[in-house]
# Entry
Amino acid sequence: MNWKFRVCPTTGLKVHDSAETLIQVNAVTAIVFLLVGGALALLMVLTRWQVVHILPADYFYRLLTLHGIAMLVAWIIFFEMAVLYFASAVLLSHRLAVPWLAWTQYILMLVGAAMVTVMVLMGKADVMFTSYIPLQAHHMYYLGVILFAVGAILGCIVFFATVTSAKVEGAYEGSLSLVTYGAAAAAIIAILTLAHGAIALIPTWLWALGVIPMMDPEAYILMFWGFGHSSQQINLCAMIAIWYLLGTLTVGSKPISEKYCRTAFLFYILFVLIPSEHHLLVDPGLSAAHKVWNTGYFMHLAILASMMHAFSVPAYVEVALRKKGYTKGLFGWLKEAPWGNPAFSSLVFSVVGFGFLGGISGVVYGTEQINIISHNTLRIPGHFHATVVIGTTMAFMGVTYYVLPLIFKREVAFPTAARWQPYIYGTGMTIFSVAMMFVGGFGVPRRHWDITAADAVFQLNYGPVVNIGLAITAIGGILAAIGGLMYCLIAVATLLIGKKIPQEA
Amino acid sequence: MSINVPEKYWWDIPLDQDEKTWIKVAIVWCILLTVMMPWWHISGNQNPSSEFYRITTDNFDKLTDKFIAKYKVGEEEGIDVVAPPANTDVFVRGSQWMWEPILKLKKNQTYRIHLSSVDVNHGFSIVPINMNFQAVPGWDYVLTLTPTTSGEFHIVCNEFCGIGHHTMIGKIYVE
Ligand code: HEM
Ligand SMILES: [Cu+2]
Ligand SMILES: [Cu+2]
# Structure
């Protein structure tokens, strides 16, 4: 058989044309969802700012449901599919195995996401992305989620098929590169967690169709988070694989000890499926011993892995920069780092934001006692916007600045705007997350349209500090929305008007 | 480079000294965190309740009605106000979109609060002291409560429970 390849002029990697097309469609679709989710985010944050309070209640809840799905599900997972194909076919200079299966992945995910979006916008699925039963959405909503998940599983299968055929056909000798290894960890966790998703959602879909009775609501919560939390480790592994990738691309860093990094990835696979019970700490149904064991022992083994990466990624960057001769003083290397390269600044925001804001807040709120004063307050969205936005989303944004020239073969448009983009987005999101965690400390609920309870029998007053905190949250959110819009515009402009980079066949 | 195949026998190459030191620091830290969990559970005395029972929503509904009928002392905004004696079983029912009944409790007295919902999930959040528990249909969640400050408290629903979610506000008086 004949496969079409080109040789990338910058990296010398051989790029298979099907792999290239599939990376392109998945990445572009991801960015469209990011744009949609960002527009919704702006409306929501302007609603939670009580002085502005822009949306009516039903639209607030509806768009909040859609924001969670467009961002956490569609943007992140479409982009991850692009990352999986890149880390397998491109990095191994091999053909993408079974392209038709990869197209099936794309089409299933697209159809699933479209079904969900339509159902939510029609007001037939006001259930939030967690869709806790007995709240019920239209059965097409659940079917959409299931199709999306099946598509994602197919993407993982294509990844493993590509890696296997590369090995069999001798595209590489010995072990996988660290980045591909990290992507493999993500794909393994994806397959494991999506199985929990099936256990939670397939019976729910059948229940919505009227075929079977409802499962126990608490059992649903357990199953949902077995999927919903564990699947965050897909994002985590993909993000860390990209950290290593960006370290290499931006400053030429290399792993000092492969054993160290790979062991840490292995820990994720082994231990990370378990601590999902931190979502149920203040629920009935599980004994205290169960909760303490689950969120204590196993959570901290997963944390060990994160701490290992949090050391090695910056350490390897430092070593690479020192090798380049930036050895003045303790922090001379940091001063000479390529701060004007948006991929590098995104990397720094991602590592620092994920570790210090997201990681630490997560460990704290996930303890049995502190959860009593955090559960369902704004502390929680404050925490996960630090992990999944400053961490994962910014890592994906950073790598885009390399994907555009390498895969779309065009120079990044508006380089000055691109230089500023990570700083605007990262600063905005940092302000947003910290302010939300602060306000949450007063018990202000998440997913709440009106904390003055003006339409209720009793009114509430959380006090002036909370009002100021929500205003600061909104300002951070607006700044982040601007940074997010800049990212989307730069990407789209690059595709449409970016200067073409000449290629040899 | 992290995008290239590693050297052969990479697993035989020993860790760098700094990496070894960091792993030791991290392991000690993680053990500390792990030990803190059960230790604080035993010594801290601030744990979420782990007393709960299965109950049908119908039965919980009836028990709450019976409880209200027995201790009712008045009404406020159309919601029953009850003043149960200390050490009794107190029922708090979440439904779309109200918390029933309004409770009148005595400072420094202990009550067994039975928390549940008769339709969808609700969130039981006591404001302004900020304590949060989940009210799940089919589960009777028992919270042993001893109010230590007097005043007026609100119960805010903080689990999304439908379009009227933000109107679901209840009340507790402590005197
Ligand atoms: C411009 C940047 C963003 C802003 C201003 C923003 C703002 C918000 C706001 C105001 C909420 C509602 C909080 C509440 O009332 O409970 C929210 C929820 C959420 N956001 Fe974002 N967000 C942004 C980006 C993202 C991204 C990139 C992701 C995921 C990758 C994300 C994932 C979520 C999720 C999962 C929820 C929870 C939805 C729910 O409670 O069901 N957000 N966001
Ligand atoms: Cu409610
Ligand atoms: Cu509610």
